[in-house]
Amino acid sequence: MRVRSPKLTIGQQVSIMGVDFAQFSYRRERNVPTWRGTLQPSETSSLYVVKVIYPIPSSPKVWILSPKLEPNAPHRYEDDSLCLYHPDDRSWTADRFISKTIVPWTALWLAFYEMWLKSGVWYGPEAPHNGIKKAF
Questions:
Q1: Does 91 have pLDDT greater than 70?
Q2: Which helix (H) or strand (E) holds 65?
Q3: Which residues contact residue 20 at a Cβ distance below 8 angstroms, ignoring those fewer than 6 apart?
Q4: What distance in Å separates the CA atoms of residue 84 and residue 65, rounded to the nearest whole number?
Q5: Domain extent for 25
Q6: Which of 9, 43, 93, 118 reaches 20 to 30 Å from 16, CA-CA?
Q7: Nearest alpha-carbon partner for 35 in 46, 50, 20
Q8: Pairwise CA distance, residues 90 & 59, whole Å
Q9: Which of these, 33, 35, 26, 29, lies nearest to 9 by C-alpha position?
Q10: How deeply is 21 buried, as exposed, middle or buried, from its count of CB atoms within 10 A (0-12, 13-18, 19+)?
Q11: How many domains does the chain have?
């Protein structure tokens, strides 16, 4: 029997985010834990303004606030939030830090997005609807 780790508190999430990504600020928006900050996936990349919400007990969601993403950019949900992983593969669970998973995955998503802008090809991993994850 696998022992599950306890869920992290929002205080723990805020604390570690402050250590790992000091450029992100925290506040509650409509009583939902929310971070805003900037990411730059490479030295030549744009500086992206990112919003991360954590509507407990749901998974975190991420939006790019600026610069605006191309309307047909892949790997986004209908609400324009980023698709960072397949929800069924349990890549993120409430016992994992957002700053160790969601934010780095967002930076990777942005790097793949920039490659997609130049080439028209998404080089990042994908999780097809049949549940088989394609490797890098």
A1: yes
A2: strand 61-66
A3: 97, 99, 100, 103
A4: 16
A5: 10-119
A6: 43
A7: 50
A8: 10
A9: 33
A10: buried
A11: 1
113: left (phi over 0), alpha (psi -120 to 50) or beta: alpha
Residue/partner pairs of 63-72 with CB below 8 Å, 24 or more apart: 64/110, 65/36, 69/113, 70/117
Query: With the CA atoms of 70, 73, 78 and 83 taken in that order, what torsion angle do they form, in degrees rounded to the nearest 10?
Result: -130
Cα–Cα dist 19/99, whole Å: 9
For residue range 40-83, what is the model confidence (pLDDT) as tens digits? 999 999 999 999 999 998 999 999 999 999 999 999 999 999 99
Confirm whether 133 is domain-assigned.
no
101 domain-assigned:
yes
Domain-located, residue 33: yes
Look at residues 84, 90, 99, 91 and name the one whose alpha carbon lies nearest to residue 23. 99
What is the rounded CA–CA span in Å between residue 123 and residue 56?
Answer: 31
Is the pTM higher than 0.85? The answer reads: yes
Residues 110, 111, 114: CA angle, nearest 5 degrees: 85
Q: Which own/partner pairs from 123-132 qualify as long-range (CB within 8 Å, at least 24 positions apart)?
A: 124/75, 126/75, 127/85, 127/86, 127/89, 131/86, 131/88
Tell whether 90 is covered by a domain: yes
